[in-house]
């Protein structure tokens, strides 16, 4: 459906609104109230592109008046995906990359990464069917991280996708315990003990 709102000057006047794509036409009747009116029309069968809108007002006494306008129609939902993410570690957590593919160049993309407590947002755009960002997620806790990508075009069609990545920034440690001397008795099964 399409909701249109116009300003007019004569309350109670009868108004007919129509929108057309050149092949299909949707028409609705309404009334001027408080110097304005609105009408909701079903244009779901229309072809995307430029639409012509016409509003005719008639108060039944004076010469009818007409107002016209042009609007755009875009019902194609953009698509987006996230390339297989790498694990987050001590080295890359401050410059963590997220990238993927998208279908409409110039569309706004919001990347959200969260550990379900803290949220990190990055805004970018779809460029030549791709996008990429690097971001600092050192504030997120070490456990699976949710990565969400939302894309919105100029007509406010929205699509999103999400994926998860593991985060482990704890550096492993290892130390050699005090070793016994190797002798004739233990040389065939010498026990080496480490802490890690």
| Average pLDDT, all residues | 91
Taken from the alpha-carbon principal axes, the silhouette is rod-shaped
- DSSP strand tally: 14
**How large is the radius of gyration?**
32 Å
- For the largest beta sheet, what order do the strands appear in spatially? 3-2-5-6
Provide the helix percentage: under 10%
Question: Structural class per helix/strand content?
Answer: mainly beta
Low-confidence stretches: none
N-C termini distance: 64 Å
- Largest β sheet strand count, sense and barrel closure: 4 strands, antiparallel
Beta content: over 45%
| Count of DSSP H/I helices | 0
H/E element sequence: EEEEEEEEEEEEEE
Describe the structure.
It is a single chain. The protein is mainly beta and 196 residues long. 0% of the residues lie in helices and 46% in strands. The chain has strands at 2-7, 14-20, 25-31, 36-41, 49-58, 65-73, 96-101, 108-114, 119-125, 130-135, 145-152, 158-165, 175-176, 194-195. A four-stranded antiparallel β-sheet has the order 3-2-5-6, with no helix packed on it. It is rod-shaped, with a radius of gyration of 32 Å. The N and C termini lie far apart (64 Å). The mean pLDDT is 91.
């Amino acid at each position: 459906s399409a909701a249109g709102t116009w300003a007019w000057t004569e309350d109670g006047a009868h108004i007919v609104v129509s929108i057309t794509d050149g092949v299909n036409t949707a028409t609705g009747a309404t009334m001027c109230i408080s110097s304005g009116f609105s009408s909701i029309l079903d244009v779901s069968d229309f072809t995307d592109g430029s639409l012509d809108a016409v509003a005719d007002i008639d108060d039944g006494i004076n010469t009818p008046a007409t107002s016209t306008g042009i609007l755009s129609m875009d019902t194609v939902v953009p698509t987006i995906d996230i390339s297989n993410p790498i694990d987050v570690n001590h080295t890359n957590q401050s410059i963590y990359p997220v990238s993927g593919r998208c279908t409409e160049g110039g569309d706004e993309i919001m990347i959200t990464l969260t550990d379900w407590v803290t949220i990190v947002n990055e805004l970018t755009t779809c460029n030549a069917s791709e996008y990429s960002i690097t971001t600092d997620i050192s504030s997120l806790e070490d456990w699976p991280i949710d990565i969400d990508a939302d894309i919105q075009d100029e007509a406010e069609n929205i699509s999103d996708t999400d994926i998860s990545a593991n985060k482990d920034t704890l550096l492993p440690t290892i130390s050699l315990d005090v070793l016994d001397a190797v002798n004739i008795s233990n040389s065939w099964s010498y026990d080496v003990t480490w802490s890690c």
